[in-house]
Amino acid sequence: MMEKADTVTVGIRYEGFKFLRFSFVETDDIGKDALSVQLTVDINDSGPVREGQSNIVVKVNVVITTSTEEIVANVEAASVFGLDGIPSDKVHDNGGVKYPESLLTTLVSLAISTTRGAILAKGAGSFLEKMPLPIVNPKGFVPANDKQSSEEQGLTTE
C-alpha cells in the first residue's frame, strides 16, 4: 500500500486573459448551415518555480466550421494562472512541478468558461453571440499523471 504524502496547500490566482487570435466570417448562409465546433486546449507552465511561485498558461483554440468544412471562426485565447506556496521539496531539479490532475482540470475548466463568455461578448451582433461554446468535460483535455491522485502527489489547492 502506498503511503499518503503530507498535503500542502497551494494558492491560485487568475492573472489574466487575452485573445491571441480572433477572426470570423459573417455571411447570410451561416445561420442556415449546421456548424461544428472543434475545441483544443494546451497547458504550459511558463517557467521554473521561483520562491514558491509559478504560472500556468492555458490556451484554448476554437475552430468553427460549416458542414462543407469551411472555417467561419478561428479563435485562440490564453488564460494565465498564478500559483503561490509551492514547497521546494515538490520542485524537480529542472525547476518544474508535476501538478495534480485535479488542479489542471480546474484551470482548464476556468479557461474554457472564460473563453466562452469572451467570445459571446466580442462576437456580439454576429452569429457568434447565438452559438456559445458547448459545455465539455475538462478532464478530457488534461493528460493523465501516471494515475497518481493529488493526495499521493501531496499538493492541494485553496
Layout of helices and strands:
Blueprint: E1 8-24, E2 35-45, E3 54-66, E4 71-84, H1 101-122, H2 150-153, E5 155-157
Parallel strand pairs: 1-5
Antiparallel strand pairs: 1-4, 2-3, 3-4
Question: What can you tell me about this protein's structure?
Answer:
This protein is of the alpha+beta class. It has one domain (8-143): Bacterial Protein-export protein SecB (Roll), CATH 3.10.420.10. 16% of the residues lie in helices and 37% in strands. It is built from 2 helices and 5 strands; from the N terminus they run ββββααβ. The protein has helices spanning 101-122, 150-153; strands at 8-24, 35-45, 54-66, 71-84, 155-157. Strand 2 and strand 3 form a beta hairpin. The protein is elongated, with a radius of gyration of 19 Å.
Shape: elongated
Helix content: 10-25%
Total domain modules: 1
- The CATH first-level class comes to Alpha Beta
Determine the CATH superfamily: SecB-like
Give the tally of β-strands.
5
Low-confidence stretches: 147-158
Strand order of the largest sheet: 2-3-4-1-5
Q: Gyration radius, to the nearest Å?
A: 19 Å
Strand content: 35-45%
What is the ordering of alpha helices and beta strands?
Answer: EEEEHHE
Do you know the CATH architecture?
Answer: Roll
